[in-house]
Design brief:
Number of strands: 19
Strand order of the largest sheet: 9-7-5-2-10-1-11-15-18-19
Helix content: 25-40%
Largest sheet: 10 strands, mixed
Bound molecules: guanosine-5'-diphosphate
Structural class: alpha/beta
Length: 422
Amino acid sequence: MAADCIVGAQWGDEGKGKVIDYFARAADYVVRWAGGGNAGHTIILPDGRKFVLHLLPAGVFHEGVVNVLGAGVVLDPWLVLEELRALEEVGLQVPPERLRISLRAHLVLPWHKALDQARERVAEKDAIGTTGKGIGPCYEDKAARRGLRLAELVSGKSLAPILEPLAREKNLLLRELYGADPIDPAQVEASLGEVRERLLPFVDDGGALLRKALGEGRKILFEGAQGILLDLDHGTYPYVTSSSASSGGVFSGTGIPFSALDRVIGVAKAYTTRVGEGPFPSELQGPPGERLRKAGGEFGATTGRPRRCGWLDCAALRYALSLAGAEEMVLTKLDVLSGQGPLKILAAYEGLDRFPASAGEVGGLRPRYEEMEGWDEPLAGVRSFRDLPGPARDYVARVEELTGVRISMVSVGPGREEVFPR
Ligand code: GDP
């Protein structure tokens, strides 16, 4: 068996897109197991063009790679077609044999998006900071066993028995609780009928496909979305995403046995960012945080929101890597730390021998920092570990010591080639 999993080891936005793109060159299959159009993987093509994928796996950029959206993904059927069209516009055709979508994937419907946005609007200061793409509400309906899956859409049967009860409940909430407009189920069904025809060629039994591929010794790459600390069960609840973002989700979200996974690779940024609300012990307020945000271009790929920035939190990283079973990691955006002055690393939380289980617990944390020498040289042209400035090499080594996990690769720029082995 030959399956690797790449997973963000922080709160998302670690630069997974580029890392997955790098590993996808050697893969036969690239597979997403969870989340939906709330991801924002940025890939810089060899000709310098920048492309942001929200739903499609990053293997779409590699001919010969079959891309799979697993059963654990929530699929916005309009968005997937829009993304395929956007790829076509830049000259990239993704034929059905290169994109397989699980029959068991749940569909994100207009009510899900409307509710997501209405709730965030009403919650204001208590908002989770979702991307407003309807992901959470879609997973709610999945867990409540009233969701609409691709299997039902392609069956060709009337969707009214599913859509009408959904509409009754959701429209009541929209109207009465949030003062928003109701959505007509007949219109949704008609619109779904249009996308159905176009989606049909892509639909597959994703689990069966992958188990067969494993049996044939094909190379599979599992592509994580969001990050381990946003995992529904093990992340910083309630400021998490609504799915199993850690590597544990691979099995339930795709239908492969756990024995199939060879290797988990964590992706971590050389500092920490967080988008939306929730605990962030090493956050830098004011000008130092702004300096990091500006240097790292830390604005959401999906929402454009400024990300909160802070020092690298090795206590959180150690927890995340051990949770996901990652024995190696890729450290990205080391170049962003050039010229940031003396650097700090959060080494541990004083008096706490485990990662806090609730957002409330984080308030009382006393982070212990280590100060490290910074460097001023830009790293953009560096292509080997040896050529990094001494303090940058020391920084990498200290992160390995503090997390107990080997850094196998270092990334020093957004481009495909700006990465080298440790
Ligand atoms: P993802 O959600 O984890 O895939 O994160 P994004 O794709 O949003 O990545 C973050 C941003 O950082 C993107 O604009 C990437 O092009 C960029 N990026 C990735 N790696 C590096 C790096 O090593 N250095 C710099 N400066 N930018 C990077």
